[in-house]
Amino acid sequence: MNLVNRFFLWLVLLPAQLYEKMGINTHQLRAVLNTKLLIDDRRPNTFHQTQQKKKKKPISFATLGTMLVTGFMGCFFVFSFFVGQDMITHLTIFFSFFLFVLASTLIADFTSVLIDIRDNVIILPKPISDKTFVLARLLHVLIHISKLVFPMALPSLIFVGINQGVLKLLPFILLIALATLFTIFLINALYILILKLTTPDRFKTIISYFQIIFAIAFYGGYQIVPRLINKVAMEQYDIRTNFWAWLAPPYWFAGAWQFLTSFEITIPLISSLILSIVVPIASIYIVIKYFAPSFNQKLSMISGSESGPAPQADVDGKKVNSNSGYLSLLTNLFSEKGAETMSFQNVWKITARSRDYKMKVYPSLGYLVVYLVMMFLNNKNFSLADVQNQTGRGKIIFISLIYFSSLILIMSVNQLLYSEKYKAAWIYFTTPIEKPGKIISGAIKSMIAKFFLPIVAVTFIAATWIVGPKIIPNLLLGIFNELLIIFTIAFLSFREFPFAQVPNQAAKSNFIRGLVSMIVPVTIGGLHYLIYNFMPVVIILAILSGGAAWMVMDAIKNKTWEVLKLEYKD
Amino acid sequence: MEPIIRLKNVVKNYGEKKVLKGITLDIYPGQVIGYIGPNGAGKSTTVKILCGLISDYEGEVWVEGKDLKQDPLSVKRKIGYVPELAELYDVLTPAEFLGFMADLYEIPKDVADERIRKMLTAFGLDANMNQRMDTFSKGMRQKVLIISGLLHNPDIIILDEPLSGLDANSVIIVKDLISKLAKDGKTIFYCSHMMDVVEKVSDRIVLINDGVVLADGSFIELQSQQGNQSLEKIFAHMTAKESLSDAADQMMSAFDN
After folding, report:
1. What pLDDT, on a 0 to 100 scale, did the predictor assign at position A323?
2. First CA to last CA across chain A, in angstroms?
3. What is the value of pTM for the model shown?
4. What is the spatial distance between Cα B3 and Cα B7, in angstroms, rounded to a whole number?
5. Where along chain B do its domains lie?
6. DSSP codes, B48-84
7. Tens digit of pLDDT for each residue in A519-567?
8. How far apart are the C-alpha atoms of B176 and B197, rounded to whole Å?
9. CB-closest option in B74, B76, B106 to A125
């Protein structure tokens, strides 16, 4: 137990006598909180999950690590004080950041940290009263949120303290507390909404989609927003000129601060103050009064669904699977009968259903899309005519569009190696598979059919439609090059069965692999640009590249047990 | 003698599905109840009601003269529960986890520490006492769970498939422990699918199927009603819809094509 946790534990247990009077067993309260904080300290957090840590070193002091990272993020918030000239604009932007980052962190933590389904089996059969347990949960939430909010707000607090004087910090702190309450309400409301709309079974999946969207939006925001606003406009920006700002809660908090520090009696400022105090408190009241009871019930359903009655057999014997026709068509088109087909379909289904895989790949896909959008934004005077006439810029756009999609493919293939359920790979070792290479080629073809084929189809149709058939040789060269790249990378680095590796491998080799995977398509894309207009060369190279891709794929398929030296990881 | 556990017409529905359709049972101190039934019969649901995990049931449950709905805390103090799945906070060490359990039962710290050490040593886990449980095997986790259910010296012990994952030697220890606990006057509620174990350890067998009690009595009594055969055979005879050897025949005939 580290100092921070001990401090918070001491702090929340200060009113112990008051708790006793309320009929709460403080001995049990302390025991639950102590254990919960200890568990928090050893749990990989949101930041660890993406980092891929080595498994051998047990995680301790996760709390301090999280607080440091959060503090670092908090430093970025200080930038909001450089947008615009007045404090209302500064603070509106600060509170927007604050609400957004806090909400996106909490949305993940609520499922993994704050709602531990094991509590039901471990704590509920013990003689602990509901009151005590509810208070323990509440205090745990409070401590958890404080550990996020303090480091997040600290850099900005220091900045404001230095620039505006310490006295003006008090209303700022108060408003941060109110904004935090408001965020808790937002998260709760979102959870209730999701639970209303779907079954508890799908709850976690939907939450993970939210996390993916948040991650992409966050990244996109940091990338795109500063580019959209030019620097002079940014410094002159005044949020008060926009009437719609009233719809955004951060604007109220900013106005309230202005009122509390200047006591200017104007209608907008007073309305801000009222809104920023009444709305969070009223919303928390709603959460406690109306949401919480049904919330707990619903949450017990999440756990109940696991231990509840076994699923009923399908009465009509029909399996609901919308894309099975499409899948079998693709399977017949791309894969050989036998091991390759098995692997093709298996990988297709697992990548579609595994929350784990989607959480790793989809955010990266989102980042790439953000890059793409940025690329177009940077080319402000880009027009369709450029592409149509195949000018220099048109060519660059076209080539980056084609080679860009190979990054998606590389990413999706790289993640195929890892799975939490890596032990399930025993099936490949106990069945009589003649050439393990076929499992690998099936897996890669599956990813090509899933992520590459749709992009290629759209690009092909769009390009032929805009430019005309004369672009086809270049299109084909691009597509074959990409296939060659992915097959070569797979030939060299995909030396395991799909989903057979422990996910927490050293991050280093991944980083280098990622870097190489980036450089290769970019270089080949550059070379393609140079020969773009020499049609005979393009045609010959397209044929060569296509043939080479075919050969490398065949080489993967024919890899034997001796070459691959596969080992079952237990 | 007063029954220590009394279930009166207990009904539990999950939505439309009726899981328990009126279970009535009187259990007396010192009995070892073998609670058996096929998957989905309602065994776990009964256990969860007794442990206070499910509170929205209909009917009455009395434990040592106390209504479970009225006074769940004092009922919970009397019961020790060993859950079926290895559900525990595995980032903790056994010493930390069991210490936490002891705190929840409000056992004085010195008593608890001594007891935890002795019990872990008895199961051969003394060397692992301060290791995190995420590296533990299924059997080691199960041992920790068994200790967590016995720690506060409860009058009633509910065991849900307690032998899963244990090696043969540990099975002997646990079986021996059950009979010694019963001799000590503890009431044991033993849920399992392993008929041969149930046949040996329990002195009263309650067979449920589809939410109702099908048979209730000692093994000898069951044998006298159902013919002189093993509990496994009696179980199959009373719960299987079709003949089980037909199923095996069907399996074999699948090779024909």
Report:
1. 56
2. 32
3. 0.72
4. 10
5. 26-51+68-247
6. HHHHTS----EEEEEETTEETTT-HHHHHHHEEEE-S
7. 888 888 889 888 888 889 999 999 999 999 999 999 999 888 888 777 7
8. 12
9. B76
CA–CA min distance B124, chain A (Å): 23
Tokens coding B185? 């006057």
Per-residue pLDDT tens digits for A335-379: 888 888 888 988 988 888 887 788 778 877 787 777 777 776 666
Integer angstrom CA distances of residue A74 from A68, A95, A151, B112: 10, 12, 7, 44
Which residues on chain B are in Cβ contact (under 8 Å) with A124? 51-53
CA A34 vs. chain centroid, Å, equals: 30
Are A308 and B14 spatial neighbours (Cβ–Cβ below 8 Å)? Answer: yes
Q: Give backbone dihedrals phi and psi of B190, rounded to 5 degrees, phi first.
A: -115, 115
Complex ipTM > 0.95: no
Q: In chain A, what are the domain boundaries?
A: 3-306, 324-564
Structure tokens at A163: 């620039």
* A133 contacts in chain B (CB < 8 Å): none
Give me A451's structure tokens: 């992520």
Give the whole-number percent of chain B exceeding pLDDT 90: 42
User: Does A58 sit within 8 Å of B104, measured CB to CB?
Assistant: no
Distance, in Å, from the CA atom of A178 to the CA atom of A200, rounded to the nearest integer, reads 30
Choose among B53, B77, B91: nearest Cβ to A127. B77
Architecture of the domain made up of B26-51+68-247: 3-Layer(aba) Sandwich (3.40)
Asked if residue A108 lies in contact with residue A170, where contact means CB atoms within 8 angstroms, the answer is no
